[in-house]
Amino acid sequence: GSEGERKAAEYLFRQLSSAGVVMLTDENGQDFSIRDSLTDIRSLNIVGIVEGFDQKLREEYIVVGAHIDGMGVNRMTVNGQDVEQVYPGADANASGMSMLIELARQVSVCRYMFPRSIIFAGFGAGEKGTAGSWYFVNRAFSEIGKVRAMIDLNMLGHMSKNNPFTLL
């Protein structure tokens, strides 16, 4: 729900639209709020689609998603001193957003290669318990039973011994 998250969402909307993706949300996104005993989360999702070419399979979906927020800055006190811990947004998750936009461009240009419809989603509040993706699955997308696969683009290129490349 931060100003930075809203700007990232607006940017994603413009990029997906210009790539030829049919937008399922407007430039203000799919606004949502989730309240639990600890927090009150307000955020938004940006969602678009490239329809598949096959008459039957186009009613099935592949979701490609990335969260649009980052952790930002954590302010804390260490030994009586105020300290800021900065989390690099380029890693989590501008890398995922960049890949999402580029994949949308490529899929849009080569749409004749995809029998199923491809949904491109920028999820808000990813750093807040994946609230945006939860909202998409449980409240916003009525055809969720027709999703055949989901590809999550998060922290791309961030591989190490403790963080190996995985494909589930």
Structure description:
The structure is a single chain. With 168 residues, the chain is α/β, with parallel strands linked by helices. Helix content is 27%, strand content 30%. Strands 1, 2, 3, 4, 7 and 8 form a six-stranded mixed beta sheet that branches. Strands 5-6 form a two-stranded antiparallel sheet. The protein is globular, with a radius of gyration of 17 Å.
Task: Please state roughly what percent of the residues sit in beta strands, choosing from under 5%, 5-15%, 15-25%, 25-35%, 35-45% or over 45%.
Answer: 25-35%
Low-pLDDT stretches are: none
Compute the separation of the termini in Å.
Answer: 30 Å
| Radius of gyration, CA atoms, in whole angstroms | 17 Å
In short:
Helices cover 27% and strands 30% of the residues. The protein is built from three helices and eight strands; from the N terminus they run αββββββαβαβ.
Protein traits:
168 residues, 6-stranded mixed beta sheet, 3 helices, globular
Strand-helix topology:
Elements: H1 3-18, E1 22-23, E2 30-35, E3 40-50, E4 61-67, E5 73-78, E6 81-86, H2 90-109, E7 117-123, H3 131-140, E8 147-152
Parallel strand pairs: 4-7, 4-8
Antiparallel strand pairs: 1-3, 2-3, 3-7, 5-6
